[in-house]
Structure to design on (176 residues):
């Protein structure tokens, strides 16, 4: 694919090929994920997706939280959800995290998790079901649409660390 302009790489910053300023912040902090996200991350380590339900409106939210932002009431139950869902929205990206160009696209998507309320989902990557890597835009669009059913592909249990990356990616699955 041909792109106008010149893409930047990490190297360009390190070798000072471009104008930039380097400033180190002296910030020391500790971060606690709280009750809801701690349980969510523990669940990921076990290969499980946990949501939380609201006794007032009945919604099941994922990622879980300890209060319902619509009812202003505490949520009261853990709900074990399936590791599958449907694509709510997606993008076909030719940019890496270091801003360099990719030869082949990847597909970040918001996935609505089955069993959670409508619009509840997590951001993750969608891979090709057989070969992981997508060849091009046309191939992506031939297999993925808004509403396409997808299923999580997990890391082996001994490699999981309680992070969203314990799910390697989602892949499209055939509808029964
Ligand atoms: Zn509620």
């Amino acid at each position: 694919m041909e792109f106008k302009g010149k893409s930047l790489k990490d190297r360009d910053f390190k070798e000072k090929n471009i104008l930039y300023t380097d400033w180190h912040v002296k910030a020391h902090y500790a971060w606690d994920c709280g009750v809801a996200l701690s349980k969510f991350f523990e669940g990921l380590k076990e290969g499980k997706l946990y949501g939380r339900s609201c006794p007032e409106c009945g919604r099941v939210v994922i990622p879980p939280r300890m209060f319902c932002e619509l009812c202003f009431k505490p949520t009261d139950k853990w709900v074990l959800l399936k590791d599958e869902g449907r694509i709510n929205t997606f993008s076909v990206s030719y940019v890496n995290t270091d801003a360099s160009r990719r030869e082949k696209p990847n597909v970040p998507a918001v996935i609505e998790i089955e069993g959670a309320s409508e619009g509840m989902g997590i951001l993750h990557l969608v891979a090709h079901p057989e070969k992981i890597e997508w060849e091009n835009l046309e191939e992506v669009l031939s297999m993925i649409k808004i509403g396409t059913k997808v299923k999580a592909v997990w890391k082996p249990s001994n490699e999981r660390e309680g992070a969203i990356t314990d799910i390697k990616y989602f892949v499209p699955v055939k509808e029964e």
About this structure: Residues 54, 56-57, 59, 68, 70-71, 73 surround zinc ion (CB under 6 Å). The mean pLDDT is 93.
